[in-house]
Amino acid sequence: MTSPAEQPVLIEVEGNIATLTLNRPAKLNALNYPTIDALQRHLDAIERDDSIRVVILTGSGDKAFSAGADIAGFSSSVEAGVATAMREFVGRGQALTKRVENFSKPIIAAVNGLAFGGGCEVTEACPLAIASEHARFAKPEINLGFPPPFGGTQRLPRHIGRKRALQLILTGDSISAEEAARIGLVNEVVPASRLIARTRELAASIIEKSPIAVSACLASVTRGINLSIDEGLAVEANQFAQTVHTHDIREGINAFLERRPAHFNGH
Prior knowledge:
2-enoyl-CoA Hydratase, Chain A, domain 1, alpha/beta
């Protein structure tokens, strides 16, 4: 039985919010294989728990959200050859960011420090992100001789544009939290002392809404963003159709007409 201090990812549930904390501060919360696997297990459990409405993902300490993939950990996979590297390293990392991106509940990154490499890719995959004023973001994989392998070459250009993304990807240069907000990589920047409080405020504002509608919005945007507009509109229509038979849509409309607060129950 490992103590909390030895667990690579900590979980705390308070009300309807689950906070997942990357817990390798001595390694700047680098994503080694046990950490990636633990994150996946926690997300599986959270998805099954209807009482949890929003997930906050952050890092322990005040230096790093995550400095990226653990180089010492994945180097042996690279040495073992293409098949092993693709299965153990690339496959695992892409599966994590895809899971985060397609999760049925909002995941808000509370970026408390460095978000380099895989840490930046996880931030890109999260639907929302708030950064501490001292956070920094970078894609330093180029300095190690390979391209970003956890989805960074695909998500970042879609978020901030091809030329901005390629400047980061090809140089490995870091940018400030303010610059990350300006180009759309994060939603906002707050003082370090306010990071978790502000993230919880954002989570609370989402919890007030219908969980069915929230899930439908996430699916519509995530699935539709890379489609043609006509295909995206079909995704949107399908997600709307799934709400028509629910209590929440009737409650929302009736509350509006009756000029009272809506009380959603997720059914």
